[in-house]
Amino acid sequence: MVQDFQDVWLVIPVFNEETVIADVLAHVLRTFPNVVCVDDGSSDGSAVRILGSGAHLLRHPINLGQGAALQTGLSYALARPGAEYFVTFDADGQHQVEDVVTMIGVLREKEADVVLGSRFLEAAHEVPPLKKLILRLIALLSRPSRTLGLTDTHNGLRAFNRAVAEKVDITQAGMAHASELVDFLARANVKVREVPVTIKYTEYSMSKGQSLLNGVNIIFDLALRRRG
Amino acid sequence: MIIKGLLILAAVLLFVFFLRRSHTARLQAFKRIGFTLFCLFGVIAVIQPDVMTWLANRVGVGRGTDLLLYILTVVFGFFSLNTYLRFKDTERRLTRLARAMAIRDAVPPAEAGSPGGRGVADEAAEGRGVALAQSGRGEGQGV
Q1: Residue A195 forms beta bridges with which residues?
Q2: Structural Rg of chain B based on CA atoms
Q3: Is the dihedral of CA A82, A84, A90, A95 positive or negative?
Q4: CA nearest A169: which of A181, A178, A186?
């Protein structure tokens, strides 16, 4: 069964992913024709790799953080003709294209406005125990995520329909954007659905991924964020 | 003691300031008035050091130097917060600027097989590099 994904846009924030980005893009582009990479001021050859790949390339002149990169890619994708569904995808190859297809399916069936990937819905795959603990703790501590009944707030794999994507406005430039998004979803009165996704923890993604200490940063950023 | 009330008031004001997070003209004016008063106070304290002790006794503090420390603490808190908010604001503007630049200079993928689509992106893909592609676009827009 060949599905048409012309109306789907993948947003991939890229920061110094020179070694893997070309492979990840080649793999993703086989299924999804529209991919926009936001190079967040990489100091390596990421941009050149993206140029030859068939993805759209946006470049932040300076490093601004993942949240800012996501918003930039989203703004760009929203302006493309025919764009209906928007997916955020990590550059390090830990997400699965099949999961994205499932998520788009949920959106197309209008079962939800937003679909979030979760590592914890089904039998926890290969999430390292300590990481699991921290992530679950963040999910539990955050009130909006409890309202929505979410199990995994810091998963980079998310899909939005157009109506929601237009309203998304990520102001947290750094890593706290994930919680900011959940916060927004809880207020925005949209149908949110979590689907189980598989995360491939390769040695590469482990070395690039957020350190556990970053959980402390996330909690601080959130505490300092504007209230009300 | 009066000093306790004053210090608590200062802390509350700082917190309110922190929550408001907006740079209105009124706030700006208050800040300037505060700064002027602080300078004036500094000059007086230098010329007439006894004033500090007198003032300290007024508000229930034993020594002038202690009062000075309290005032300094409050002022420092204010300035830290002010700087923090400024940075946040600047960061937000910078993000918007960078975003606008990134979107303006977007490089779409080379369109294989469409003869009309041979543009800047194609040349870039052939090895002219990103920087060249971007400056090329700039010229094209008549900069």
Answers
A1: A117
A2: 28
A3: negative
A4: A181
Structural domains of chain A ordered from first start: 8-224 (3.90.550.10)
Beta-carbon separation of B98 and A52 below 8 A: no
The answer to whether residues A9 and A55 touch, using CB atoms and an 8 Å cutoff, is no
Determine the Cα–Cα distance for residues A155 and A178; give it in Å rounded to an integer: 8
- Measure CA of the first residue to CA of the last residue in chain A; give whole Å: 47
ipTM for this prediction? 0.77
Q: Does B98 touch chain A (CB under 8 A)?
A: yes
State the pLDDT confidence band at A189, using cuts at 50, 70 and 90: confident
How far apart, in whole angstroms, are the C-alpha atoms of residue B126 and residue B118? 11
Q: Rounded to two decimals, what is the model's pTM?
A: 0.71
Enumerate residues 101 to 120 of chain B having a beta carbon within 8 A of any beta carbon in chain A.
101-103, 105-110
Taking the Cβ of residue B90 and every Cβ of chain A, the question of whether any pair is shorter than 8 Å is answered with no
Residue A33 pLDDT grade (very low, low, confident, very high; cuts 50, 70, 90): very high
B66 reaches A (C-beta below 8 A): no
- Measured CA to CA, the distance from residue A25 to residue A42 in angstroms comes to 17
Which residues in chain B touch residue A223, judged by CB atoms under 8 angstroms apart? none
Own/partner contacts of B57-61, CB < 8 Å, gap of 24 or more, are B58/B2, B59/B1, B59/B2, B59/B3, B59/B6, B60/B1, B60/B2, B60/B3, B60/B4, B61/B1, B61/B3
Q: How confident is the model at residue A180 (pLDDT cuts 50, 70, 90)?
A: confident
A128 and B CB contact within 8 Å? no
